[in-house]
Design brief:
- The structure is a single chain.
- By secondary structure, the protein is of the alpha+beta class.
- It contains 28 helices and 13 strands.
- A 6-stranded mixed beta sheet has the order 10-11-9-8-6-13. A 5-stranded antiparallel beta sheet has the order 2-1-5-4-3. Strands 7-12 form a two-stranded antiparallel sheet.
- A hairpin with a 3-residue loop joins β8 and β9.
- α3 packs parallel to α5, α7 packs parallel to α9 and α15 packs antiparallel against α16.
Length: 789
């Protein structure tokens, strides 16, 4: 049976991924691709798009797993998802290497001949950008050889296969060498070099068996069985194909099992085991027909015709062969046609149709001679290419050795002349030099001891500080982590060293662009991060970075302080303060104000009874009413939101109305928080933030309009205050302490505050708080309408 029908083995050749966890998952693709896909989905769900680079790497692993499973409808979507994440990241060597891997995987997926030709052209262009001696180039050559094999471009396929095998051997990459050996074995079979093909197939099978790569081992065993069948070693071929079929049954690969059954049928037929052969052929034919593979069905029909002949039923064989040979030309492989014509010639002879039998026999002979000539030509060309390459390599090595010898002789003569001059000079300075060296050595030893003691003291200080300390290079690779970092993230320091800071949730760009005091309410050079500790619990970390240069290496010194408990205490203090203000407001409004109102009513009644004292009582009533109004104003100032029935939109609308009336500035308010219910403390904080932003905006000269916008989305609650004049840059804010207080309130609430200048000259202060950071809940029933003023 021609090897053309063997299942395609997608390349095990892959550029390594940056972290140990990803490399371990990548290695499992060749052992259990279905389990790897399940693990990839679990990790992607855990990431939730927080790390685009790691997501891109996981989708690349998934694409390889789907490719190995021959699940082509999921390969390209996985590649597209990976590329979408890479477009979010700045260019780097690691990203370019991952893009090459995606291009090679995409080209290695089965498709139409037109798409295969386009993939070959794309790989040829891509090869020009790769290093001559690199794993990426070796992978590209293996895939291009496979595509050319499927396109029947035997010369190009063999040349790429030989080049890939030599390159992977030079790189000492066993997995890639086994893949190259597998591919080269297929091209050697087509050239008729069966001994070489068997050696390469054994090499691939040996490695895949040792590495427990079940899917690739089954493919290597399939090729071995095909080669042994062509060499006439039918019992060995039957053993190999039986082992391959058992592996594919274990992997639940129905199509691959059908390929194995077709090959097993052919081998059993050669051993004259007709019943077993017929059972294997019929099982394979049913699956391959459902898979729309008429080319393989025609091969199986030919084997069934042979079985009919051996069972002395030439009429049934003629019927099968007539149906096959009348099929469209693309339904019958060219390499199978001579065999089918010979079968029909034999069957026609048995039923007495000698002229038809002679015509079929002549056609079979013509096709066979053309095939033999093609094989001999290809084999001779390949052997000549290998011999010529080896001869050229030997001549090149001899010439290089001769040139090295001549250069060494010339350099030796120059050194001898210089040595004579140096010896004459050195003789006089030898004694002085020895004395100086001894003195200098003693001085250096003392300096070295002092430096060693200093370094040990500094290392002890770093290891004993309570804050986590990381040394990270410009690529985001952790060079050092102290014991506090280990306690903070629940990871051993030795495991942290050499890994990317991204695995801790610390992005590389944060190390080079720290936060500032005016933009985040934090000390200059600091940034507050929401991370996860070693137990998977959320924590708040204050990151402070500085730069240091050690030799030629530039490092970032990162100090990590766990402020989770501090932030919780701050929130508790602010909540307590808000609650006390609300309590005081209630006591003033419901207690003192009510008492004053009662006193005013008593005085009003007394004024009606004692007309002579009426002026004095009226004066007392007026003063009591004034105190009553101030009490109510005090109560509203202590808790503005509570004074409006606990509605934040209503309180903001009242603030807008009061400012418009008192300041002569048009203030608009647009609130739509849907069915979101805020706690009294959260409402009070947001009102104080909005009030502070409005007061900062109203300080600008020639201000005509201020807009207040409170809006809840699915993920966050956003408060925006815009003025019709551009807000000055952060460093030029009139009162930075007021803005720092606003930023602090936003940060303690779990959000962030920023200043943004619009294109129309409008300046906005924006406070955004994720809903996950709020103690909020969704109301039952219809959502309340938004408030618009």
């Amino acid at each position: 049976m021609a090897l053309l029908f063997a299942t395609a083995s997608n390349a095990a050749c892959r550029s390594p991924l940056p972290t140990e966890s990803l490399r371990a998952l990548d290695d499992r693709v060749d052992i259990d691709p279905a389990a790897v896909n399940a693990e990839v989905q679990r990790r992607l769900e855990a990431l939730r798009d927080s790390d685009p680079l790691q997501a891109a790497e996981l989708y690349a692993i998934s694409a390889d797993a789907f490719s190995l499973l021959d699940d082509d409808q999921h390969v390209l979507p996985a590649i597209a998802e990976s590329r979408a994440r890479l477009r979010q990241l700045p260019d780097s060597e690691a990203i370019r290497s991952l893009q090459v891997r995606l291009d090679v995987t995409e080209a290695d997926s089965p498709r139409t001949p037109k798409d295969m030709e386009a993939s070959v052209d794309k790989l040829t262009r891509l090869e020009q950008s790769l290093a001559a001696k690199s794993l990426n180039r070796a992978c590209l050559l293996i895939v291009r050889s496979r595509l050319n094999t499927q396109l029947a471009r035997d010369d190009e396929a063999t040349a790429d296969g030989i080049a890939a095998y030599r390159l992977t051997t030079a790189l000492h990459d066993s997995a890639a060498t086994a893949d190259a050996a597998y591919q080269l074995a297929m091209t050697y079979v087509r050239a008729g070099l069966l001994e070489d093909a068997l050696r390469l197939a054994d090499e691939a099978a040996t490695y895949n068996r040792a590495a427990a790569q079940t899917a690739r081992l089954s493919n290597a065993l399939y090729i071995k069985a095909d080669i042994l069948e062509q060499m006439g070693h039918f019992n060995e071929a039957l053993t190999a194909i039986t082992d391959a079929r058992a592996l594919n049954v274990k992997l639940n690969q129905a199509i691959d099992v059908a390929f194995d059954d077709q090959k097993k049928c052919s081998i059993l037929l050669a051993l004259q085991k007709l019943d077993a052969a017929s059972s294997s052929c019929l099982g394979a034919e049913r699956v391959l027909a459902e898979a729309n593979r008429p080319d393989l069905v025609s091969v199986i029909e030919g084997d069934l015709a042979r079985i009919d002949m051996l069972r002395n039923n030439p009429a049934a064989a003629i019927t099968r062969l007539d149906r096959i040979l009348r099929s469209p030309s693309d339904h019958v492989p060219a390499r199978t046609l001579p065999k089918l014509y010979r079968y029909r010639s034999d069957a026609l002879t048995r039923v007495g149709r000698f002229e038809d039998a002679l015509r079929d026999l002549q056609e079979a002979s013509r096709l066979t001679e053309a095939r033999i000539a093609e094989r001999r030509s290809l084999a001779a060309a390949r052997l000549k290419e290998r011999s010529t390459a080896e001869l050229i390599n030997q001549e090149k090595q001899a010439l290089e050795a001769q040139m090295r010898l001549e250069r060494q002789e010339a350099a030796s003569q120059v050194r001898q002349a210089r040595l004579r001059l140096a010896l004459a000079t050195a003789a006089g300075l030898l004694f002085v030099s020895i004395a100086y060296l001894m003195w200098n050595r003693a001085r250096h030893e003392r300096a070295l001891r002092r430096a060693t003691e200093t370094l040990e003291a500094q290392a002890h200080v770093l290891s004993s500080v309570r804050e986590g300390v990381l040394l990270v290079d410009d690529r985001g690779v952790i060079k050092y982590a102290n014991e506090a970092s280990q306690r903070l993230f629940g990871r051993e320091s030795a495991r942290l060293a050499g890994s990317s800071s991204e695995i801790l949730g610390i992005r590389t760009e944060w190390l080079q662009a720290p936060g500032t005091e005016t933009s985040a309410g934090l000390p200059a050079g600091a940034r507050e991060l929401q991370l996860v500790d070693g137990k998977g619990q959320p924590m708040v970390v204050l990151l402070t970075c500085s730069s240091v240069t050690l030799g030629d290496e530039h490092l970032n010194v990162c100090v990590l302080q766990d402020v989770t408990e501090l932030r919780r205490l701050e929130r508790d203090v602010l909540s307590a303060a808000s609650g006390e203000r609300g309590q005081m407001s209630s006591e003033v409004h419901e207690g003192i104000a009510q008492d004053l109102a009662g006193i005013a009513l008593l005085l009003r009644g007394a004024a009606g009874k004692f007309a002579s004292d009426s002026p004095t009582l009226e004066l007392a009533i007026r003063h009591v009413n004034e105190v009553l109004e101030r009490s109510r104003a005090l109560a509203k100032g202590l808790s503005p939101v509570l004074a409006t029935g606990g509605s934040l939109p209503t309180a903001l609308a009242r603030l807008a109305n009061e400012l418009s009336a008192n300041r002569g500035i048009r203030v608009t308010c647009d609130c739509d928080i849907g069915d979101l219910s805020l706690s009294p403390t959260e409402s009070d904080h947001l009102y104080r933030i909005a009030q502070g932003c409005v007061q900062l905006a109203s300080r600008h000269k020639n201000l005509r309009e201020i807009g207040i916008d409170l809006r809840a989305t699915r993920d966050a609650l956003t408060l925006t205050i815009c003025a019709d004049g551009a807000i000055p840059p952060e460093a030029k804010i009139d009162d930075e302490r007021d803005w720092a207080t606003i930023a602090y309130l936003a940060r303690v609430s779990g959000g962030a505050a920023r200043i943004q200048a619009q294109a129309d000259g409008t300046g906005c202060r924006i406070i955004s708080i994720p809903l996950a950071s709020l103690d909020s809940r969704r109301l039952q029933g219809p959502a309340p309408n938004g408030t618009r003023m």
